[in-house]
Amino acid sequence: MNVKNFVVESIDEMKNKVTWPKYSSLQNSAVLVLVASLIFALVIGLIDLTFENIMTWFYDLF
C-alpha cells in the first residue's frame, strides 16, 4: 500500500463513511465534558486539601 493510495482512501472514508455529529449535539457534548472536568478537578482538589491538612496535623503531633 503506497502513500498516495492511503491518502485517497482516507479522504474517501472521511467524506463517505464517517458520521459527523450535528452542531447542537457537539455543543452538548462539549458542555458535558467541561462540567465533568470541573467537578472532577474540584473533587481531586478537596481530596488533596484534606490529605494535606491531615498530614500537617499528624506531623505537628511529633
TrEMBL record:
It is a single-pass membrane protein. InterPro entries: SecE_bac, SecE_sf, Translocase_SecE/Sec61-g. The keyword Chloroplast does not apply. Keywords: Cell membrane, Membrane, Protein transport, Translocation, Transmembrane, Transmembrane helix, Transport. The chain crosses the membrane at residues 30-51. Its main location: membrane. Component of the Sec protein translocase complex. Heterotrimer consisting of SecY, SecE and SecG subunits. The heterotrimers can form oligomers, although 1 heterotrimer is thought to be able to translocate proteins. Interacts with the ribosome. Interacts with SecDF, and other proteins may be involved. Interacts with SecA. Essential subunit of the Sec protein translocation channel SecYEG. Clamps together the 2 halves of SecY. May contact the channel plug during translocation. This is Protein translocase subunit SecE. It comes from Cyclobacterium jeungdonense. The gene is secE.
